[in-house]
Amino acid sequence: MGRKKGKLFGILVMCVVSGLFLVQTAFSAESKKPYKIGAIFDISGKASALGTPEKQTAEMVVEQVNKAGGINGHPLELVFYDTASDTQKAIESVNKLVKKDKVLAIIGPSTSGESMAIIETIQNNEIPNISCAARIEITDPPKKWVFKTPQTDRQAMAKILGYMKKQGIKKIAFMSVEGGFGSGGLVQVDSLSPEFGIEVVAREKFSEDDTNMTTQLTKIRGTDAQALIVWCTDKGSAKVAANIRQLGMTIPIFMSHGIASMKFIEQAKEAAEGIIFPAGRLLVFDSLPDTDPQKKVLAKYAADFKAKYNTTADTFGGHAWDALNIVIRAIEKAGDDINRIRDEIEKTKNFVGIGGVFNFSEKDHHGLGPESLVMIKIVNGKWTYLE
Amino acid sequence: MKFADQLLQYLINGITNGGIYALIALGFTIIYKSTDIINFAQGEFVMLGAVFMSTLYNRAHLSLPVSFGLSVLAVAAVGILMEVLMIHPLRDGSVISQIMATIGASILFRGSVMLIWGRNDLFVPFFSCGQPYRFFSAIFDRQYVWILVIALISMGVLHLFYEKTTHGKAMTACSANKKASMLVGINVQTMVILSFGLSAALGAVAGGVLAPFGMKYDSGVTFGLKGFCAAIVGGLGNNVGAMVGGFVLGVVEELGAGLISSNYKNALSFCILLAVLLIRPQGILFIRSGERV
Fold this sequence. Notes:
A: alpha/beta
């Protein structure tokens, strides 16, 4: 008896489900076929602080585009996979996006390691990819299908050293976190500093989980360094800043673009005062002159993000905004022809984005110069535009 | 800046870090003594201590000392549950399978904390605010004083527990000879449970004093490894050794970072670990006493 009832119920459910399917296909047949864009970000791994705003931004942009009627009447669909800081997962996601989801282009991933790992898969599958990771090697030398939006470590370091040179600083100490980000910075400071006539007199390392970096700082105090560069992301940088304050060090402190989020100021509090770092214009958009071409775009993105997620937009989300919008512009012109989408991305000129004004070319798949960065100083717990 | 001033700063930093390593090393030792297993979830006890404390302080709005105390008790309970649910069922298996179970437990703790509390660092305020302290030319944060004082108090309490209470003496007896202890009527299983609770509590104390620096689900791993190093350096199964090992490791690490290069700070602790294992596997404090039969 019970079994019979179960069977009947099962059949009923099947009918309803298939009915729904019919109705749905009937509806979607009326509107145009959706354009699918793949997104792979790290929202559960080590770089989740980057991947989370990237995913949020991408979802927000897709919602805005669809509200405004889609791309030439086609709705836009975002297919998202989490890479969890795992290069293997990133490669699998690319394969899935190409073979199963049949997307037109892929934005992401969040970190350089993952981005480097998927290059071969991207090139073999001939799918346009705009990476949101920083490392210079991603697009240097240029690969046919790979583009990227964030500024490179090298540009950030060159910006700092250029600023130091103007201030007459000749000898510096350099302190970096253990791991990829820190050693990347060390390579850049060593290769760039001679160009600016600056000598690195001390090189120190620390681990992000250390509680006390005064040993390294004490050592630096014993040298004749006129300034200190700390190359780390927000958590480690905040601890170093606190230690610098305890020791009463007075030399100017420079930090990397890795502290370009409110999280750093929240953690370091008064110890953040006076720290100088390079970052995209988003952080200081309201102090920019009105003639700045990016000001309007930045203000709108910051306001939209705040309204939707109730947190301050940061430059990482901005990288995804740039990547997605460059793809959308290409699809507007090229439709669903993947080869033409790639060509249109490469032809992108004077695209005013969050990271800067992008100019791609056959030789330059990054499209930003060091002028896309500005120097920012933390004053009274706020970002202030220096130059 | 004079060399002597720098040296003093390195030493003070080394001693504060050493206090933390000593607490974690003690946790390893206590469990090793009563069960012969190395508990790879020891670092996770540290992390849990910080995470619980931050939740009690920030969410339940309890005062700092109360959240500290409650989190230590809560982590002790976690340690006891771990023994009862994961280690005890394997009591007839080999020591290796029990060690495997502790690795499993550590993954379980990390994963659950990531799912429940997320991937961001959790903080509590510093225990006391104000200008950092000055000792001759060395400067150190007030929190480092708290770390050292609380670590020393915990060690003192632990010592009293082992020397003066019946339970403490029973635990020592168990670690010396399980069968004989059973014959004189000591409930060995209770002592094993007690040792897990105690060692989890010590881990939580370390986590609590470190909580102002921020902790997240995977922060315990490094602390666990450093504590393990210290325990080995001091000679596993020796409480005094674990403490000495912790302080030695802390001081050597900071001196190495300050005088040689901070590039090899972590590498240095693991080199010490290897050196001790190769040259003096009994630990630096080993004094030949009765033979194990």
